């Protein structure tokens, strides 16, 4: 008995095209993807997720515990609070900005966004997914602007208040 596989082949081609579009979009966005299985603590990190921190794909374990160990100690509490708020339904999405240790030992600023994509029968989060983006250049520019504003404020504080416009014109 010969089976007509035309429809199966057509569906496979549509799936291939869909996966290709997604891969192109991810590459163009320069985002790292993450997909976290909450109960097990395991995760999927896309190749870009690793490379934005200077690692080779799959160079470190893809687990929540390892991810947390890479977060700057000063940022962990805020990140965990934001995750908890999202899990409790206080926020529609999870969003955070934090520093992660990169392979060279320095810190890379990350902007992370995600949301719960699956819950269990008791409404507990089972799976969350989202993106990571390197925001280091923006954070550096913000810091330079803040420092510039502080220097300018210092200059203005040092100008004697007795100087008036007429004194400057003389």
Largest sheet: 5 strands, antiparallel
Structural class designation: alpha+beta
Q: What is the beta-strand fraction?
A: 15-25%
* Order of helix and strand elements from N to C terminus: HEEHHHEEEHH
Q: In whole angstroms, how far apart are the ends? A: 105 Å
* Global shape: elongated
What is the compact description of this entry?
The chain is α+β, with helices and mostly antiparallel strands and 170 residues long. Helix content is 46%, strand content 24%. The chain has helices at 6-29, 47-51, 64-70, 73-87, 136-158, 165-169, and strands at residues 32-37, 42-45, 94-101, 107-119, 125-134.
Description:
This protein is an alpha+beta fold. It has six helices and five strands. It has helices spanning 6-29, 47-51, 64-70, 73-87, 136-158, 165-169; strands at residues 32-37, 42-45, 94-101, 107-119, 125-134. The protein has a five-stranded antiparallel sheet with strand order 2-1-5-4-3, with helices on both faces. The longest helix has 24 residues, at 6-29. The radius of gyration is 24 Å and the shape is elongated.
Features:
alpha+beta; 170 residues; 5-stranded antiparallel sheet; 5 strands; 6 helices
List the helices and strands and how they pair.
Layout: H1 6-29, E1 32-37, E2 42-45, H2 47-51, H3 64-70, H4 73-87, E3 94-101, E4 107-119, E5 125-134, H5 136-158, H6 165-169
Antiparallel strand pairs: 1-2, 1-5, 3-4, 4-5
């Amino acid at each position: 008995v010969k089976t007509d596989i035309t429809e199966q082949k057509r569906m496979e081609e549509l799936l291939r095209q869909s996966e290709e579009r997604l891969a192109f979009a991810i590459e163009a966005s320069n985002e790292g993807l993450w997909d976290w299985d909450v109960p097990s603590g395991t995760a999927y990190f896309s190749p870009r997720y690793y490379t934005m921190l200077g690692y080779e794909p799959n160079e470190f374990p893809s687990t929540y515990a390892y991810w947390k160990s890479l977060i700057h100690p000063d940022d962990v509490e805020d990140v965990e609070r934001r995750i908890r708020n999202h899990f409790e339904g206080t926020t529609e999405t999870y969003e955070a900005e934090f520093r992660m240790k990169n392979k060279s030992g320095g810190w890379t600023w990350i902007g992370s966004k995600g949301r719960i994509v699956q819950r269990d029968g008791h409404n507990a989060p089972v799976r969350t997914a989202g993106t990571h983006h390197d925001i280091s250049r923006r954070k550096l520019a913000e810091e330079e602007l803040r420092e510039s504003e502080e220097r300018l404020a210092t200059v203005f504080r040092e100008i004697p208040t007795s100087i008036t416009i007429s004194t400057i014109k003389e």
